[in-house]
C-alpha cells in the first residue's frame, strides 16, 4: 500500500464543479488537469458529473419542447 492512498484529498465543491465544467468543453491545460488529479476526490467528480449531465439533458429536452411549441 502506498503512502498516498491514506491521504485525504482536499478540494472544494466549486473546484470540482469547475473541473467537470472544463471537461464538458474539452479544454484544460495539462497542469490544471494534474492539479485536479492530486486535489480532487474521484467520487465527488463522478457525482458532480452525473448531476451536470442530468441538468444538461433536462435543459436540452426543455429547449426542444419550447422550440416545438413555438
Whole-number count of domains: 1
Main pleated-sheet profile: none
Treating each run of at least 4 consecutive H or I residues as one helix, how many helices?
3
Assembly type of the shown chains? single chain
Which strand-content bin applies to the residues? under 5%
- Total number of beta strands: 0
H and E order: HHH
Helix content range: over 70%
Notes on the structure:
The protein is mostly helical. It has one domain (11-69). The chain is 73% helix and 0% strand. It has helices at residues 13-25, 30-39, 42-69.
What is this structure's SSE topology?
Blueprint: H1 13-25, H2 30-39, H3 42-69
Question: Top keywords for this entry?
Answer:
73% helix, 70 residues, 3 helices, 0% strand, mainly alpha
Short structural description:
With 70 residues, this protein is mostly helical. The chain is built from three helices and no strands. The chain has helices at residues 13-25, 30-39, 42-69.
